[in-house]
Amino acid sequence: MTTERVVGGKSVRENSFDEQVAPEVVADKKVPRDTREWLARASAMGELKVLEGVDCEKGIGQITEMLHHDDDAPAVLFDGIPGYPKGFRMLVNTLSRRNRLAMTIGLDENISAAGVVDAWEQWLTEVKPLPVNTVTSGPITENIDTGDDVDLLKFPTPLWHEEDGGRYIGTAVAIVTKDPDTGVVNYGTYRAMVHDRNHTGLYISPGKHGRAHQEAWMARREPMPCVMLVGLSPLHFLGAALEIPEGVNELEWLGGVTGEPVDCIEGKLTGLPIPAGAEIALEGFVLPDEKRMEGPFGEWTGYYASKEQEQPVFRVDAVYHRNDPIMLGCPPQKPPYEGQKFQQYGRSANLRRELRAAGVPGVTAAWAHSVGGCRLFNVVAIKQQYAGHATQAGLAAISCRQGTYLGRVVVVVDEDIDVTDLHEVIWAVCTRHDPERDVQIIKRTTSGNLDPAIEPGKKGYNSRLLIDATRPWEWRDKFPAAMGPEPEEKAQVREDWGWILRGGK
Hints:
It comes from Mycolicibacterium litorale. With about 500 residues, this protein is an alpha+beta fold. It has helices at about 25, 35-45, 60-70, 100-105, 115-125, 210-220, 235-240, 250-260, 340-355, 390-400, 400-405, 420-430, 435-440, 485-495; strands at about 1-5, 10-15, 50, 75-80, 90, 135, 145, 170, 175-180, 185-190, 190-195, 200, 225-230, 265, 275, 280-295, 310-320, 325-330, 365-370, 375-380, 410-415, 440-445, 460-470.
């Protein structure tokens, strides 16, 4: 089915998704193996739209911003992009809805938020990584460009925000690097701006594993081997964008999560693993002696918090791509946007896991709120056991790996508060905490270049606000009784009767 509309004087077509995928793949409840299986599943769920004729200059970026800020928005596949070969496509907004996220990681599509957090924490603590399965070829080797044939400009990279300093090919990306001393491989998401046909920028925030690898190679004055996956499955984007335990290879961890090792070819130039089912991979080296101006770029805080500045350069020496390749895009927007809508589950699970691992007892729940970019506003629920318990939990939430990077506010609440419900959290703050008694400011904690509240030239440190919104320990038994259901009961009612809110569906 094709529907044609005229938008801004240009013809735009909405098509149905007609990729040839076996019916049994659509019905299969296992994790989709690649982007094309993911698209078939999303289409079968009624969660995908295909648009033709949308331009890269404004259209794709504007539509993506709209999708990110609508909770019911579908995934969108852009095809027939003016100025680019038909079949060179861009996929956006894949993981903004919980049902699509659940499908991506092999969970029931009607799972609750708490269910996703529980599953993710189990993967973080119990999954045994599986070494990658090295193969000699795969869909990613259908086209390999080297030397003068390398041309990043043939891919439809949008200008995501009007004020961006360039086109960012790296938004929903996995960047593969290796520690030069230990050989440990990292799979991370960092931004990359196109400079020309065979160079991109590479901005990695301080404290990230990829940045540590980069600094180790630069200290040796050696080029850093690098692979940038700019077309990859939503599952692999998840693995790259979320924090997993220290020292674990994300590719091997993804194999453990799915129960099947990830098939990878070895990069011809770097020897780094490249998923054989990926759509587009760029291979080359980050140069030790070259920097170029990069940015500005609208970031996940909702601001242009870092201005144009010199950043390392990634020289692309080989491009691998499938026939009719599909790029994956997830540009930052004002919170909450797509990235934060899926990050809230993984980061919340990791925060709860790290608090328990730190020895904080009675931690019943944790939530990294998307309105704070899943970093700036974190909530921890505890079952109080002794005086000072709430302060201990809050300080641990500020200090652990998940909570330390660019945090701002930590709220500690009692176990009867639904930490996922911002209204309940603020209600607890308004009714259980007294500013004179229950607020602490922790100074000189770690920040970063993207912190909009820190004056330019002084970025590096920030302070944290710790709010104890629990019933005061000394007279908790005299505190007025709260009305309404406990979080577990509330979740059960929504599971049993939530269909009423969906118009009987």
